[in-house]
């Protein structure tokens, strides 16, 4: 589901962390987790420079049968970032297309392909998290967002000492049915970029529903809250604008780099008073 990330010169927009993530504003948190989601696509041997510039002192890489994730940690926080689809990974492609809903470990039904990816990773990941007592966060882009959603839910059934503080997903597909998404009470910020097609699958008629609080970027990359009719019009506008550039924005809107750029733009608008301060959800 994810557009391949070219390992270009690493560009990190977040300032180095010198305090707990919980003390950052919601948009600053979102920018950090979007950047970490992009970093998760890098090879393990070049990740260190990127996370050091953000303010993390340690990382651990997990790869089980093509299912991949990182743990990034510093003195305050522990962040689990699941990697999205890589087109050359058959296991990832198989996970994306296997949309059969099966009984979940928590409640309700969950996407079989996404569940199998987490099944591969979870034993090692759980062992590592049982050693962690720092504030715990989850994030991911594309398939990685779906995996992070499932992992965060499984923490509720585990002996992991730190409950997840929040979940941040970018361009994530639907993961489960109503019972599944309502079982875990967790702050979840679900970022959607205009016509990103991955956010529309699997379809609702198969019983799948989205979880969390939607954070929507319009066709101009601006953070807005629209009624359904306005959203419909905005998506058509984005589609026709992309055709003029010989692009299909249903695919191009999925790039994690666009999420990063749009969140940075939202931070600027918030700081200059063009939009109201974006508030965090109240603890559940």
Mean pLDDT: 88
Q: Mind summarizing the main beta sheet?
A: 8 strands, mixed
Query: What are the secondary-structure elements, in order, as H or E?
Result: HHEEEHEEHEHEHEEEHHH
Q: In total, how many beta strands? A: 10
Sum this structure up briefly.
37% of the residues lie in helices and 19% in strands. The protein is of the alpha/beta class and 284 residues long. It comes from Aureliella helgolandensis.
Write the layout of secondary structure elements.
Elements: H1 26-39, H2 44-54, E1 58-64, E2 67-73, E3 77-82, H3 90-97, E4 101-103, E5 109-111, H4 112-129, E6 135-141, H5 143-154, E7 164-170, H6 178-183, E8 188-193, E9 213-217, E10 223-224, H7 228-244, H8 249-252, H9 256-271
Helix pairs in contact: 1-9, 3-4, 4-5
